[in-house]
Amino acid sequence: MIAAFLGQVAHHGRFGLVAGLAAGLALPDAALALRPWLPELIGLLLAVTALRIGPRAAFGSLAEFRGTLRAVAVFQMLLPCLALLLFRLAGHADTAIALIAVLWLAAPSVTGSPNFAILLGQPPAPALRLLVLGTALFPLTALPVFWLLPALGGAAAAFGAAGWLMTVIALSVGAGFLLRRWVLPAPDAETVAALDGIAVILLAVVVVGLMSALGPALAQSPVQVAGWLVLACVLNWGAQALTLLVLKTRPERGPFGVVAGNRNIALFLIALPPEITDPLLIFIGCYQIPMYLTPIVMQRLYRRASAAD
User: Fold this and answer.
1) CA pair distance 158, 141, nearest whole angstrom
2) Is 176 in a helix, a strand, or coil?
3) Would you kindly state where each structural domain of the chain is located, as residue ranges?
4) How far is the C-alpha of 39 from the C-alpha of 137, rounded, in Å?
5) Which residues cross the membrane (predicted)?
């Protein structure tokens, strides 16, 4: 009975994410109450995802590892440096938009990217590999950005910002893999669907906490929030569409597209001073909207990409 219910939740998962967004805006007290529990909720989500995928699919072959390593270098190091160069050539490197765009590009994948890949009908394992490897290498890939932008706090901030997140990911993914080996070595289709349903519920709860800063900002300055929302949609959905186009001959372009648009920019909240993080908090709240609408808005594009393979 419970497995069947969770399977239905997974089947209608896209609408569950929309419900989470609506709750985050409509229930500010609940959002504030959930915010301190975000690390634990995200860790639980990662454990469920790792249990669902399993270590064999997650690690992949040596060739897949090399491809993931190249993707991390492009996504988290080459693209932000190129964007910063373009902003400087245009004379806008000191603007808040430039700073947020560069930080967004330098960030690793969001922890929910494998789950978004599942909801879009894409293989989740490449997204999980990008998530784990990208976060592990974040202190190194972020170094050029911190060096080029001294106001961010230097190299030490990059290492400090990534340390706790990598610890959470390592413990959560490790727990999920151990459960897969000891408890569910060969889950059937109904069990996999139930795990997907649990992940959808966790994603919906997590987004409520992530929206805690958006409600007050929307009441105080709706025009400013609208501007940040437009930027978030352009960055997120534009990066996904561009990745699908550029990697049209690559079999992993679907999960890579999900990661390209959905970045864990909230990681920088730990390392940056308040004068930088204040506008960043509003952007992060706005950013949840295109992120959680991705399985609905981008579904047709990913379906076409899968059909063309």
Assistant:
1) 9
2) helix
3) 2-308
4) 20
5) 38-59, 71-90, 96-118, 130-149, 155-179, 191-214, 226-247
Whether the CB-CB separation of 120 and 254 falls below 8 Å is answered with yes
DSSP 150: G
The owner of tokens 């808040």 is 96
Return the residue matching tokens 């959680």: 292
Taking domain 2-308, whether its CATH number is 3.30.450.40 is answered by no
Specify the 3-state DSSP secondary structure of 243: helix
pLDDT category at 57 given cuts 50, 70, 90 is confident
Q: Is 34 exposed, middle or buried (0-12, 13-18, 19+ CB in 10 A)?
A: buried
Q: Are 299 and 117 in contact (CB under 8 A)?
A: no
For 15-56, the pLDDT digits (tens) are 888 888 888 888 888 888 887 887 788 888 888 888 988 887
Closest to 72 in 3D by CA, of 160, 167, 140, 147: 140
Q: Distance (Å, rounded) from C-alpha 53 to C-alpha 138?
A: 23
Contact 258, 127 (CB under 8 A): yes
Q: Which two tokens stand for residue 5?
A: 């219910």
The DSSP code sequence of 23-89 is: HHHH-HHHHHHHGGGHHHHHHHHHHHHHHHH-HHHHH--HHHHHHHHHHHHIIIIIHHHHHHHHHHH
